[in-house]
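Pilot study result, target chain (195 residues):
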Amino acid sequence: MGKERPNREELERLYTGEKLSAIQIAKGYGVNFARVYKWMKGYEIKRRTKSEAVKLYNCKRIPGKNELKKLKNIPIKEIAIKYGINQTTARSWLDRYDIKRKKHKKNVKRGSWQSLEFTLEQAKLFLEKHSEYEELPSAKILSKKGYITLGTIIVRYHGGFPVFRQKLEAYMRGEPIPENPTDQPSLLEQYIEDS
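Predicted structure:
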């Protein structure tokens, strides 16, 4: 069981003075954030507006419950990156609606994503899991599917999507991976040669 209900002055100090959210106060007292709002209503402490909360927590907007439910299987770090917020704020958004998250293992060694072979294997696993795609989809689709890291790494370390897709095709066929697939003629060059 949590602490006793705070008095008006204490609650006002936490919410107004220290600018804590109802979620943060609730955690400190071992109660649900709705209980904190009931206390505030009883003490006639004015709640922040949504726009005040957005300014206070320095975010573009606070997503609704349905949007947040779609993110429950995405690591907190990736949610924070997606919305341009810190991980604490991302956790508080999920906690606000009592959305339980899938535990993510941190068993990827530092620097693994810089390895082409590791990234190719991760892309292959994605395609095996999501058989509706014939080729690796865009970074936007990867992000929506919960693979924001894969899309970011392909662009950052592996030459972008067109180059990486060529390497991935060779990898999946068991062929040698081309060193520099950009040396291959473009579709326009192939068309001109064929004409």
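One observation from the pilot: The radius of gyration is 24 Å. A full batch analysis is planned for the follow-on phase.
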